[in-house]
């Protein structure tokens, strides 16, 4: 009997016939040494079967194939007569993974990450994989600023050829940026330049922003911020010479030095147009932002080339190439530009593809598109389409790409990628005051019902005075051309007796239908018809005006209300508008055969202006006017009310205006509202300091003014109530939060104040 031994370390020698022997026909195959691996797995990798001839070449192939599986630590092949014997030694399996001392990361998340690289419980243990996992874990800690981290691994053998792996982690302390220096700054003060960049030394907000921890990506972004700052202010030759990052021996403090060369400031000496202009030069020159005699600005240069590109794109030239070539004169410190225009070929859109909408139906997105498939490419329509999709409010982000169709020179596809967000909203509102304590309200809404684009909402208000239950449904595309239809149901109870400020109760129930018609791209008109029934319970000590109303018109009134409205929305974003405006005009008339006769009209104009950087100015104005006709007054429950977080902050909700009186003429705490309303708001919105470009947390400084005037009062600006304060809006993980702290500026002794107000919500 001859034995043929091929240990693992000589597998390469087999291929060179180091142990040659006479071939034989395999009568049987036997596998020895397996504990967990099935014999069939070994058979599958063998290049020989029973009845076939076996030689040294096939032996080498078998050993290489079995080693390649990664399951085995050693492999030997022996021949006992005409029986082929495969002797293997299995690698141990991983029985458990354990982490001690780890606080910075979630252990389950780390296990999931290690599983992706092949290190997980029940898998074959590989020392090389373990070493890579250890280095990757260290790298993750370094990315968190923990440069003194130590990671040690222990492999403990267990019974049944298994091992337990333990990671002992000493996280150490987070290294902080102790100093940032900008060397070479002469035109601007170093302290002013440091305010421009994201990285900073520790401050009171560092626990949240982590901007006091070094990041290569953040440093790169900060360098580009400095470059843009100088280039936008005429420093054409600005250059960042080097960036140096050093860490102290104890790995606790980081020092950053940015060396720059400012160069000289350049002014524009002239701008020329060249190439295939395609459009009249006079028209293109209107798009040029560079002006002779002004200082050079890279932003204006970029805006110029982009504007010309966009203009050509509107004509179908999606791949136009516009380049501005500088001609600097170093002696005069001037620079001239020649703008070369190459429009390329005119292209059309082959297909529109929607990506990322796992819940929202394709048609909900496609119906907002103004660019059509098969039509000439129009950049303005494509941008307009993206804006319309963004304004739906269903997505955190909507981006559009226009790649060329492979193999074609005149076709592109339009790919819109959306990132869906929860569109259900569970909203809570609360306010505090010395008179009413806690006022609560809630609403449940779904703005994208089953991904159809339809909205459904249920509102509940549990205030100590008002209780409201309302159900609304809207189909924004009841017809394919954008005609909307909706309905509203509501039940409203007013019970001020709980606060001992007027013994009466009102209960209103109503239902209505609404229709909306698009008349232009940003304009819609709306029509509605609703039925409202209001019942009033009065008592001996009820306010006089309620008694008079009931005595004259009865304790139950039914009205048929017709509404008409017009709206225009040109905001660039539904969630975080920075420019554009919203205008609304609404009219409401009670018509026969209802019991009441009144009319109301309102107008709102809200505009957003970009100021500088990320600062945005919001101006809002609202007017309201109501009157009775046909010998009947405007019902008191149709009055306008002002005060609170939605109008004039710092005053209790609906508390501004004339006070009510009881039957004896004594002044009550309740306001009677009014038939005329004026509200004005001015607010500067800006990112929270230290948050960089993150807009999830925004601050605002505001100035509010407003009042209402009852029948018989003359409208006077001197009656306005004013307030000013700070607001905070945070799109937190638990939902949107809004806070305001306001100081009334001209309160009267009878005014009811509410300086702190907040609104919180949770999405689902």
Description:
Pfam families: Omp85, POTRA. The protein has 764 residues and is an alpha+beta fold. The protein has 6 domains: 8-90, membrane protein fhac (Ubiquitin-like (UB roll)), CATH 3.10.20.310; 93-170, Ubiquitin-like (UB roll) (Roll); 176-261, Roll (Ubiquitin-like (UB roll)); 267-342, membrane protein fhac (Ubiquitin-like (UB roll)); 348-420, membrane protein fhac (Ubiquitin-like (UB roll), Roll); 424-763, Porin. Helices cover 16% and strands 43% of the residues. A hairpin with a 4-residue loop joins β13 and β14. The model is unreliable at 1-19 and 431-437 (pLDDT under 50).
Corresponding CATH superfamily of the largest domain:
membrane protein fhac: a member of the omp85/tpsb transporter family
Q: Provide the domain count.
A: 6
Strand order of the largest sheet: 18-19-20-21-22-23-24-25-26-27-28-32-33-34-35-37
Could you tell me the strand content as a percent range? 35-45%
Helix content: 10-25%
User: N-to-C terminal Cα separation, in Å?
Assistant: 75 Å
Based on secondary structure, the structural category is alpha+beta
**What CATH architecture of the largest domain do you see?**
Beta Barrel
Total helices: the number is: 13
Main beta sheet = 16 strands, antiparallel, barrel
The whole-number mean of residue pLDDT values reads 84
Give the C-alpha Rg.
37 Å
- Spans of at least 5 consecutive residues with low confidence: 1-19, 431-437
Function: Part of the outer membrane protein assembly complex, which is involved in assembly and insertion of beta-barrel proteins into the outer membrane.
Family: Belongs to the BamA family.
GO cellular component, one term: cell outer membrane
Subcellular location: Cell outer membrane; Membrane
């Amino acid at each position: 009997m001859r034995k043929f031994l091929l240990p693992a370390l000589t597998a390469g020698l087999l291929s060179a016939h180091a142990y040659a022997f006479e071939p034989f026909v395999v009568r049987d195959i036997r596998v020895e040494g397996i504990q967990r691996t099935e014999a069939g797995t070994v058979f599958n990798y063998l290049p020989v079967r029973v009845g076939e001839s076996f030689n040294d070449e096939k032996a080498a192939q078998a050993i290489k194939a079995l080693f390649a599986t990664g399951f085995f630590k050693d492999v030997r092949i022996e021949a006992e007569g005409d029986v082929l014997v495969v002797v293997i030694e299995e690698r141990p399996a991983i029985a458990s993974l354990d982490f001690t001392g780890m606080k910075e990361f979630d252990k389950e998340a780390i296990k999931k990450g290690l599983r992706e690289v092949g290190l997980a419980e029940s898998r074959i243990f590989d020392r090389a994989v373990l070493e890579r996992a250890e280095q990757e874990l260290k790298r993750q800690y370094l990315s968190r600023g923990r440069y003194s981290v130590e990671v040690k691994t222990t492999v403990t053998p267990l019974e049944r050829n298994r091992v337990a792996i333990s990671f002992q982690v000493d996280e150490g302390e987070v290294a902080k940026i102790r100093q940032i220096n900008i060397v070479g700054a002469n035109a601007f003060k170093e302290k002013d330049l440091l305010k421009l960049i994201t990285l900073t030394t520790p401050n009171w907000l560092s626990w949240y922003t982590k901007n006091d921890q070094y990041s290569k990506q953040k440093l790169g972004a900060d360098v580009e911020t400095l470059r843009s700052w100088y280039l936008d202010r005429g420093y054409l030759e600005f250059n960042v010479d080097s960036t140096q990052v050093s860490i102290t021996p104890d790995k606790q403090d980081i020092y950053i030095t940015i060396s720059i060369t400012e160069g000289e400031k350049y002014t524009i000496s002239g701008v020329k147009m060249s190439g295939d202009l395609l459009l009249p030069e006079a028209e293109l020159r209107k798009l040029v932002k560079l002006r002779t005699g002004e200082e050079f600005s890279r932003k204006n240069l970029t805006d110029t080339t982009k504007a010309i590109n966009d203009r050509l794109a509107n004509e179908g030239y999606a791949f136009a190439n516009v380049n501005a070539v500088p001609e600097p004169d170093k002696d005069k410190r001037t620079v001239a530009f020649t703008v070369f225009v190459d429009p390329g070929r005119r292209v059309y859109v082959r297909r529109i593809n929607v990506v990322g909408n796992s819940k929202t139906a394709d048609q909900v997105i496609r119906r907002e598109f103004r660019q059509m498939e098969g039509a000439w490419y129009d950049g303005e329509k494509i941008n307009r389409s993206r804006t319309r999709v963004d304004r739906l409010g269903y997505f955190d982000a909507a981006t559009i790409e226009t790649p060329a169709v492979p193999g074609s020179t005149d076709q592109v596809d339009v790919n819109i990628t959306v990132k869906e967000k929860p569109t259900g909203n569970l909203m809570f509102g609360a306010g505090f005051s010395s008179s009413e304590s806690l006022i609560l309200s809630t609403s449940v809404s779904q703005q994208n019902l089953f991904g159809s684009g339809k909205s459904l909402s249920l509102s509940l208000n549990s205030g100590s005075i008002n209780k409201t239950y309302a159900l609304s449904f809207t189909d924004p595309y009841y017809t394919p051309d954008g005609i909307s239809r909706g309905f509203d149901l509501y039940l409203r109870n007013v019970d001020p007796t709980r606060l001992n400020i007027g013994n009466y109760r009102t209960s209103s129930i109503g239902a209505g239908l609404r229709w909306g018609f698009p008349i232009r791209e940003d304009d819609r008109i709306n029509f509605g018809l609703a039925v409202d029934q209001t019942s009033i319970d009065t008592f001996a000590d009820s306010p006089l005006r309620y008694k008079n109303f009931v005595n004259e018109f009865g304790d139950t009134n039914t009205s048929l209300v017709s509404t008409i409205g017009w709206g225009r929305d040109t905001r660039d974003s539904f969630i975080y508008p920075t420019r554009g405006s919203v205008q609304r005009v609404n009219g409401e008339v009670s018509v026969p055969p209802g019991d009441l006769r009144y009319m109301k009209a309102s107008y709102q104009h809200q505009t957003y202006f970009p100021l500088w950087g990320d600062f945005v100015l919001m101006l809002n104005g609202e007017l309201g006017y109501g009157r009775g006709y046909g010998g009947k007054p405007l019902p008191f429950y149709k009055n306008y009310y002002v005060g609170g977080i939605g109008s004039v902050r710092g005053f209790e909700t609906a508390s501004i205006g004339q006070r009510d009186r009881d039957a004896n003429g004594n002044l009550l705490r309740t306001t009677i509202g009014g038939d005329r309303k004026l509200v004005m708001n001015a607010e500067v919105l800006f990112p929270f300091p230290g948050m960089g470009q993150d807009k999830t947390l925004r601050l605002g400084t505001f100035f509010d003014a407003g009042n209402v005037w009852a029948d018989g009062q003359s409208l006077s600006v001197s009656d306005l109530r004013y307030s000013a304060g700070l607001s905070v809006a945070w799109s937190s993980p638990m939902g949107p939060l809004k806070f305001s702290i306001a100081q009334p500026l001209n309160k009267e002794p009878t005014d009811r104040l509410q300086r702190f107000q907040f609104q919180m919500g949770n999405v689902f």
